Amino acid sequence: MTPQPASKYDAMDGEGMCPYRLVLEHVTSRWGVLVLIELLERSYRFSELRRAIGRVSEKMLTQTLQTLERDGLVHRDAKAVIPPRVDYSLTDLGREVAEQVRALATWTKDRMDDVQQAREAYDEARG
């Protein structure tokens, strides 16, 4: 098997964090995961998305959406109407990563009984 050339994103940046790790952090953050999965279904207005996700502050949702937009995963469509309307949807890149995130979330849900059994066994062995 031929070794793969090193990616330009394998090297640490000046702050000690690889760029791809930052994107991974954005995508797998608590709110990033939920935003991406929710936007897989359809586009949302901010308030609709906040209600659909639940228990997220306005500030946190705003920051999450801005971060995902900057990464090219979310599209923000501001319509010049009265009252102003802003819709959020996934880009093609966002849809691709959201499918991956949803698969992980589905696996977690499907395997939760096994995880719980492992936790109980671990706690019992150390308790």
TrEMBL record:
Report the Pfam families cross-referenced here.
HxlR (PF01638)
Task: Report the residue ranges that make up the HTH hxlR-type domain in this protein.
Answer: 18-116
Q: Which InterPro entries does the entry mention?
A: HTH_HxlR, WH-like_DNA-bd_sf, WH_DNA-bd_sf
Q: Which SUPFAM superfamilies match?
A: Winged helix' DNA-binding domain
Keywords from the UniProt entry: DNA-binding, Transcription, Transcription regulation
Picking any one GO molecular function of the record gives: DNA binding
Keyword Transcription regulation found: yes
User: Is the Oxidoreductase keyword given for this protein?
Assistant: no
Name of the protein in its database record = Helix-turn-helix transcriptional regulator
Native species: Streptomyces phaeolivaceus
